[in-house]
Every structure is written in C-alpha cells, then in structure tokens.
Amino acid sequence: MTTTPIEISLQERQNRLTAVREWLQREELDGLCIFNQVMIAYLVGYHFQQTERPVALVIGALGQQGMMVPNLEGDHVRDLPLINEVVVYPEYPGLRHPMHFLADLIACFGISPTKLAADQVGYPPVWGYRGPTLAELFDLPRVPSAADFLAGLRSRKSTEIVALLRQSAYWGNLAHEILQRSIVTGRTEIEIGQEASHAATAAMFAQLGSAYRNHDWGVTPIHVGFKAGPETAFPHPLGTSRPIQEGDLIVTWSTAKMAGYHAELERTLIVGEADDEQRFYFDHMCRAQEIGIAAIQPGRRCADVDQAVYDYWAANDLLPYVRHHTGHALGMEIHEAPFLDRGDETILAPGMVFSVEPGLYVPGIGGFRHSDTVLVTEDGNEVLTYYPRELGHLTIQP
Amino acid sequence: MTTTPIEISLQERQNRLTAVREWLQREELDGLCIFNQVMIAYLVGYHFQQTERPVALVIGALGQQGMMVPNLEGDHVRDLPLINEVVVYPEYPGLRHPMHFLADLIACFGISPTKLAADQVGYPPVWGYRGPTLAELFDLPRVPSAADFLAGLRSRKSTEIVALLRQSAYWGNLAHEILQRSIVTGRTEIEIGQEASHAATAAMFAQLGSAYRNHDWGVTPIHVGFKAGPETAFPHPLGTSRPIQEGDLIVTWSTAKMAGYHAELERTLIVGEADDEQRFYFDHMCRAQEIGIAAIQPGRRCADVDQAVYDYWAANDLLPYVRHHTGHALGMEIHEAPFLDRGDETILAPGMVFSVEPGLYVPGIGGFRHSDTVLVTEDGNEVLTYYPRELGHLTIQP
C-alpha cells in the first residue's frame, strides 16, 4: 500500500481549475468566489481549520487565483503553488469588515461584480461570524450560483481519487476488524470506539510513517465506532454511556482519511445469537442492499436506484421501518451530492462514488444497516469496501 | 462533583424561550425561524447530527414552538417537552423540497411571512444541501435578522451554565495532566492525543457513570491534544505525524463537554530546558495574558481588553509576532461572539465568559499561547480554569 501516493497531485488540481475556467467562459462570467471550506481544499489544496474568520478563494476566467484570509492563516497560504495573490486582513471582527478586503481582491483581479458567480450566498455563519452576503456587499439583487456546476464537478472522481478511496477502504476494513474484536458486554460504545480508533491509527502510522498528513484539525485520521441497543432504531443517535448488553444490536462505522478522502463502511452486528425477529430484519436489509448495489449502472438515474430499493420495501410491507433513502455520494465530505433518492434525477456516470445503505429502524428492537462504498464504472459498478456482510461473521460472542 | 446536575434544566430553557418571545413583541414580529444547529439545541434542548437534511425551529410570539425535521429525526423530536408541533418531511432532496414543509409549519402557526425574523438567511449549505433562502421561499426582499439579539442572549451565561463550565474545567484540568504526563520524544501528537483523550474520558465515565450524555455525534466527550515543533508558529496548524523531538515547543488544548458546554484550557510546554529565546517569548506571553485577564471588568468594552494587550505588544516591539486578537466568548461552540477584539464594542457584563489567549508566533521557533476561561463577575472577573502557567511546571523531561 505504501507505494501509492497519498496526496492529490498538482496536475489533478490544475485540471479542476481548468474545468472552472471553462465553465466561467461558457457562462460569460469574469470570476467565481468560493466560500465553502471543502471546495477551497478541493480546488487549490488549502486545508484549514474553519472559524468565524472568513476565508474566500477567487478564481478569474483569465487565470487569476487569489485568496482572502485572516492574518492568522497568512503564512499557510502564501506558499501555496496555485495561489498568485493573497489579501490578508488583520482580524475578525476587526476595525474593517473582512468582506471589504474580499472586494479589494476582486477589484485587483479586474473582475466586475456583475460578472461574478459564487458557490454560496456568502461566508457561512460559522461560530460567531456575521457579515453581508456577496449580493449585499456589491448592492446587487443576486449573484449567480455555481453550486450545481461545482457539485457536478466534484461528483466525478478521478483515478487518483479512486486510488485514495481504495486505500481508505483498506484501512477502514482493518479498523473495523479491530473494532469488532474490541466489543464486549459491560463496556461503553464511546470507550471502545476511542480505543479502536487509536489502535487502528497507530497501525496505519506504523506502516505509512511521516508520509501521512492529517488534513482535518482535531479529527482522528481513522474514526471507528458504533451505536448499541434500542437507540440504533434512530438512524443518527447521539452517543450514550450505557454499557453493552447481550442481545444488543450494534450499528458501526469506520472511516480512514487519505489526503482528505474517505470510503464509508458500516455494519450491523449482534451481541449473542440473533433471535428470529432480528434475523428477519437483518436478512431483508441485506437483500435490499444487494438490490441497491445491482441497480447502480451508468446511464440510470439516482432516482432509479432508490426506487428499486423502495419497491422491495413496499413489496415486503417494510416501509413503516424506513427512515431514509438508499445512499449518497461521498469522498471529501461524509455526505455529498448527488443522492440515491427518488427526487434526484442525476444520471449515474463512471467515476461517481456512492454509499449504498438502505436501512430498517424498528422501534424497541433497533436499527439494521450495512453501508458499502460503490464506484460507478464504464460497464456497471465496483464495490470498494469489502468487510464481510453475513450474520455469521457479524455475531459477537458475549 | 457528581452531585451537580449535568443537564440544563427545563426552567432554564423556558427562560430562554421567554426572552425570545419578549424580543418578538418588542420588534412587533409574529415569529422567529432558527436554522443554526447550536441555537436550536440552546433553545429547546434538541441535539442532533447536522447533515444536508434541513432542520428548523419556529418560535411564535403567542407561545408556539414547532420543528421541521426529516423523517430520520422525527422520533427524536416528537417527545421533546418544549415542542408542540412537528412537521416531518420524507427525505432530502425528496419529491418536494423541505423548505415547502417549513412554509407549511409557519402557516399552521398563523405567522405572516412578512412578520417573521430568522437567525440566518436559510438552512446553511451543509454537505450537499441546496435550497432557497427564506426570503426566496416567500418572495420577500429580505427577512429581518435576529442574529445580534440571539448572540447577545447566548453571551450571558446563567448560574447553571457557569456550574457546567466549572465541571468542564475540572475534567479538562485532569485531562491536561494526563496529556502532559503522556508526552515523550519519538511518539506523534496524534497518537498521544488520542490516548490521553481516551484515558481522561474513561476516568470521567468511571466517576459520572451513565448520568453522562454525549450531545455531539462522533465527538469524544473529552478532547485533549497538542501541536509540536516549528508548526506551532501557525496559530491553527493541522496535525502531523512527525515524532516529538527535544527542544520542541508544544501548544496544547483540553476540552471536556458537559451537557454541550465546555471551558477552554491551553498551555505552552517545552520539551527539555527552554533556551533564552524561548524563555523570552514565553515570559512576554504570560505577562500579556495577565494584562488581558486584569482588563476584564464589567462595564468596559471588549475592545478595551484587546487594546490593553495590543499596547503591551507594541511597547515591547512584539507586534510582528502577533496573529490574532486576545480572545473570544465560548460555551457551546469553540468560539462564540463577542470577541476580545479592537473592533468589538460590546460592553462586558456579568455572566459573559471569554477565553483570554494572547499569543506570539515566531517563525522558525514556534508558538507561545496559554488560554484560560474567564467569567465576568459583578465586581471583576474569575478565572475558571486553573492549570499551572509557569515554565517550571510546563517543562517536559525528554
């Protein structure tokens, strides 16, 4: 595994910037302003801790690439190979609002505010941030949105990204094995999750050494954990300090970050022998996931995949236990657009990567959900995660 | 410690809601729409994992309290004591955009869209979310902002909150002691931080038991860690897998979450004996922090505190090494408004809580920053965090 690069190449980022400039030219725009932290990392490789201090990237149709950052981040940005102009403001809130420094950068690039698009209306209200939208800054009725274009660009993963996702799946698989071996009755999910995350990260560091770079502030490179007991009947329960008991259903997750990318792996485990009711829902969940994966084919719509799973739930009278759609794109963020959802008309194309995770949530019993990461290929799909799915392997001896 | 309650009381939340209704009446408004996840938790005690599926709270001037949530969160919300109406939408993106379900809730409460304020322009662009702003939804030129009022409300901490912050400071102090004892040359900051977080969480659980509830999805209750070496010259460096070396400067952090609240504790440590240069910056940083803490007095402005520290830096020719203001409010979020910043005119009032953390960042040498959590009292201030600040205690034998 160590011979594969664990960073995105400069050439790949240049390809992304070229795609942005081609879009600006098609739309007859002068420039694009990006406020989303993940999109900034995606385009120019600048990873940072997001705070109330606004950060923005400006890309001009003529090749300009500039950033507006707080003084605190100035030294981080000046050396970036893809940035040719940096405007540093002293502080937020400061004596002059940072958005006026952004206006300076846009003016310095010769970009007319009326020919400027943006990914969002302005810097998001992170922590204590307050400030004008881009439209308010320039006293315009609205600013054209690049959100659809950018979501489409990010949804098609390159071979470099797929290689990172394969590495992530490898370490996520190992971490999940460590997690499963650590689950015992009487201990809590938070303790076991932390311990397994730590052990898996140590194993990865031992192999990858200092070549590994963490791109997220305060996030562990490998994050593995689970929810146990009746609370798993909620798809997104918060953590509890309740000790694990025999008979508990467990829904896990395992993600390993590689250069900011991760695959998604989740499994349903049972502490002790499954009873008939648990087995009933477990088997239906597995079948629904198979149907979802099989439906992923280039040229079909996202909606078709979700409809295939929905039809299976309906035919088996299981809709009362369904709380969410079949899956979502992913890569840099835990969820990304598009969605395997009956309301999403996006056409599946080679390079798109989705979680496939139809779930059943039975009040009083618990949740049943496996999640695997599936790549759309030229002629079908490939499942990138490979942890066992069958109940035999997923039973924990209490 | 265990006799102190570790949840916010229903009475306290009712007081917060009453304050909102009084504001609505003063402003002659019918209702308020809240999109910010932390503000929703603050007002009605609903903690959840934020995703691209929008969530909103609507508070009416006549006592209405309702939520719009995805089906996935419906079971979480129906039992909340302070919610009397729940509108559940099936899924995002879904066949009908969730914002139309929000319009249904507002209509069901008899709130006129022209008499509605909001904390933000709309649901924030989390992950793959896209949708109309509230103004676009109702075809209005703008929606009045409640951001200033809400920031002010949250900035004044009740005695219940201060009790939680004291507990957080207690566990944060213990966790920092565990962290400092774990730092050895040759190991990496990520490994040691994970291990110490795990050990400190286990110690806290052993004492608090199942009374402890985690309010954040995927966040460890106690998070302790540090950055080491020349990268500490950046105030917000990302993690590295570089082993710790003798002579390294180390900047730590330690936070323990209690019912969603935390105090902030950060220290500068040195591996081995400090040299003269390290000692020079360390001593100036300590002095600047003393000046900042002493300047916190009710009736003064936030700007005055930052100016006092700024004047000290200027008098000692240290401004080239300054990258940020003196501190920020905190409580539920890592940073909150207002800010100890020369541009912030907010008057300090009893119950406000700030980090005081003036720092020096010297290229090639590293960063120097202690952070303590300071409560504004009726007649001065009280420092809630109490880990030793002097170099003697903060030196690690290599």
Outline the structure in words.
The structure is a homodimer of 398-residue chains. The first copy, chain A, is an alpha+beta fold. Chain A has two domains: 10-153, Creatinase/prolidase N-terminal domain (Creatine Amidinohydrolase, Chain A, domain 1); 156-396, Alpha-Beta Complex (Creatine Amidinohydrolase), CATH 3.90.230. Chain A is 34% helix and 18% strand. Chain A is built from ten helices and 16 strands. The first copy, chain A, has helices spanning 10-26, 37-44, 71-78, 98-108, 134-138, 147-155, 159-182, 189-208, 276-294, 302-315, and strands at 31-34, 56-60, 65-70, 85-89, 116-118, 222-228, 249-256, 268-271, 327-329, 336-340, 353-356, 359-362, 366-369, 372-376, 381-383, 395-396. The longest helix of chain A is centred in the middle third of the chain and has 24 residues, at 159-182. The radius of gyration of chain A is 23 Å and the shape is globular. The two termini of chain A are 35 Å apart. The model of chain A has no long low-confidence stretch (mean pLDDT 94). The interface between A and B is large, with 83 and 82 residues.
